[in-house]
Amino acid sequence: MESKTSSPHIEVRPLAAALGAEVAGLDPKRVSDPEVFPAIHAAWLEHQVLVLRGLALSPEDQVAFAAQFGEVQVHALRRAELLAREVHGEAG
Question: pLDDT digits over 6-49, tens only?
Fold first, then answer.
């Protein structure tokens, strides 16, 4: 298994030899920071699965963070739930 790597903003600790790493030391306010995200993205490309423990993001911040990796898609069950609320006139 590879050893851990770090940047000035995060530490990346491999979880297994095949794939997966934990990202530690990440300030939740900086997940989308142009100085920080490239290190997160590089870790994702190298390890394919990232664990960000205890990262409390609002739904809006989570979508903004996810959008940096590519197009964000709504899960089919959530899409059906939103459509049902719209049809029945309920707030989403």
Answer: 677 789 999 988 889 999 988 888 888 888 899 999 999 999 99
| Pair 46, 10: CB distance under 8 Å | no
Any residues with CB less than 8 A from the CB of 26 and at least 6 apart, and which? 9, 10, 36, 40, 52, 55
| Residue position matching structure tokens 């739904």 | 59
Domain ranges of the chain: 1-56, 58-92
Record the tokens describing residue 42, joined without a space.
Answer: 């590089």
pTM for the model: 0.72
Phi, psi values for residue 51, rounded to 5°: -110, 125
